[in-house]
Amino acid sequence: xxxxxxxxxxxxxxxxxxxxxxxxxxxxxxxxxxxxxxxxxxxxxxxxxxxxxxxxxxxxxxxxxxxxxxxxx
Length: 73
Ligand SMILES: [Zn+2]
Description:
5 strands; mainly beta; two-stranded antiparallel ribbon; binds zinc ion
């Protein structure tokens, strides 16, 4: 995976998490998200601690940037 900013190779790794949420600037945190309409925000994984998973992510050490794969596996 190439970094979109500096075009160098990113390091593949993972983020240990029970849940990651993405919310647009115009949005709010929600208990339930419409997973068919992710532009209004979405959650990866579940809040429950024991559902902790490895969310695939790439890190660029030059830009100090993370790129997270939002697919649920
Ligand atoms: Zn970079």
